[in-house]
Give the backbone structure.
Amino acid sequence: MPFRSSLRSTIYQTEKLTQRLRFASQPADLPILLGISFPKSGTHLLDQILLGFSNVAPYAKRLHSFYAEYEGESGKKREPEKALAWLDSLRPRDIASAHLFARPEAIARVCTPKFAPYFIFRDPRDVVVSHVFYVTDMEARHVHHDYYQSLPDFDSRLKVSILGRPDANIEFSNIADRFEPYLGWLNRPEVLTIHFEDLIHARAATLTSIMDYLLSRVTLPTSRQLILNSLEASINPTKSPTFRSGKTGEWKKHFTDEHKKIFKEVAGDLLVKLGYEKDNNW
């Protein structure tokens, strides 16, 4: 193990032991808090909220690690075995974050008493808008950055974020195909699903659901209000490198009639499945 990684691991384990001593009267076998997210759907926001539990329970005060199905700079798709190995590396009282496909093998790992999994997603129309800003302006090392920069305007970039780049050497499919591998998390009773929009417009109720989901699994000798206060206080958008505005429905400002048309053609009933529309007449 490289020195830097070894040092980081040592610091993490030391901090985790300190937390265990701080909350010595609480159980040591608390489940792993796993935040699963669709990209550009509030990953950092959910991470911050889950880390809020560290103020009331012996959870780690920082993320154990983050896993993504694609390598960040190369865009290369990782082998499924790597996701399973990463899940197997996690231990009780860890908090971890992932863009994790709902493959049968991953579901079999995550939907067990070892994990307390949360899945956050966002209106895919806002996702594609956010994706344009992120790839074009915020992440110069992104595998598609140069290509997006080469396009003449926002409208053309938005089309790519909707339709993908089917002819590129690097896998980047349309928005429906990008979401499809995550759909399996939606119908699992072991997973608490969270609409990003609810954390903006109905935060108190959503934080209560996040708290109650864990309390249905474990008993924490702390008042509900103190737990809620801890989760709320942990939210800090300024510490999220990709958090732009925290607004919802921004797609309405950017979608032209053509964008609506091509989105409906490729997305099918995705918005209905996710609860954002009742039909395709939007």
